[in-house]
C-alpha cells in the first residue's frame, strides 16, 4: 500500500524512469509527487523498501550514496546466480547478501593486511642490526604506525619496563 513519504521509481514516459516521493493521494488511485505531477499505479516500477517519510530534496543525495555503494561485479555475480537458479528474490534479501559479502571482503582484506604486517616484522627481525629500517620509518605509514602503537601498548600492559630497560612481569 502506497503511503506519503515512500520513495518510488516510476516510468514518466517510455524513455524516462524517475525517482520521486509520494506526497499525497491524487484522486482514487493516483499519487502526487513533489512536482505535483500525478503518478498512476501502473507507472510505478519499484518502491524503495525501508524508506518512509522521505523528503524529495534528499533524492539527489540518495542517488549519489547508492552509486558510491554500487559494486558492479557483485551485482553481476548475484544476477547470474539468480538466473541460474531461476529464483525470484526480494530487495531486502539482496541487501542482506550484499552485506554478508562486504563483511567477507573486509575480513579477507584485514587478514591479508595482517599477514603482510607480520611478514614485514619477520623480515625486519631477520635483518642484521645495521641494515634494519630506522625506528622512525615505522611511523611514516599510518596503518603501520597504528599497529606499532598497538603492539607497544600491549607490551606495556603485559610487562613493566623500568627506566633502565629492565623488564618485570
TrEMBL record:
<dbReference type="Pfam" id="PF23161">
    <property type="entry name" value="HTH_RNase_II"/>
</dbReference>
<dbReference type="InterPro" id="IPR056403">
    <property type="entry name" value="RNase_II_barrel"/>
</dbReference>
<feature type="domain" description="Ribonuclease II-like double HTH">
    <location>
        <begin position="97"/>
        <end position="158"/>
    </location>
</feature>
<dbReference type="Pfam" id="PF23163">
    <property type="entry name" value="CSD_RNase_II"/>
</dbReference>
<protein>
    <submittedName>
        <fullName>Ribonuclease II</fullName>
    </submittedName>
</protein>
<feature type="domain" description="Ribonuclease II-like barrel">
    <location>
        <begin position="2"/>
        <end position="59"/>
    </location>
</feature>
<dbReference type="InterPro" id="IPR056404">
    <property type="entry name" value="HTH_RNase_II"/>
</dbReference>
Amino acid at each position: 500500500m502506497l503511503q506519503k513519504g515512500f520513495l518510488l521509481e516510476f516510468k514518466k514516459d517510455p524513455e524516462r524512469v524517475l525517482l520521486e516521493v509520494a506526497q499525497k493521494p491524487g484522486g482514487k488511485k493516483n499519487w502526487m509527487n513533489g512536482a505535483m505531477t500525478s503518478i498512476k499505479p501502473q507507472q510505478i516500477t519499484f518502491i524503495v523498501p525501508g524508506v518512509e517519510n522521505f523528503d524529495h530534496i534528499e533524492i539527489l543525495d540518495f542517488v549519489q550514496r547508492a552509486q558510491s555503494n554500487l559494486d558492479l561485479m557483485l551485482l553481476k555475480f548475484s544476477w547470474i546466480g539468480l538466473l541460474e537458479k531461476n529464483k525470484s528474490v526480494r530487495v531486502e534479501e539482496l541487501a542482506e547478501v550484499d552485506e554478508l559479502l562486504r563483511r567477507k571482503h573486509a575480513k579477507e582484506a584485514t587478514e591479508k593486511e595482517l599477514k603482510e604486517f607480520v611478514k614485514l616484522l619477520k623480515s625486519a627481525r631477520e635483518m642484521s642490526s645495521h641494515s634494519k629500517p630506522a625506528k622512525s620509518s615505522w611511523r611514516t605509514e599510518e596503518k603501520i604506525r597504528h599497529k606499532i602503537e598497538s603492539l607497544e601498548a600491549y607490551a606495556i600492559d603485559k610487562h613493566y619496563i623500568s627506566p633502565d630497560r629492565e623488564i618485570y612481569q
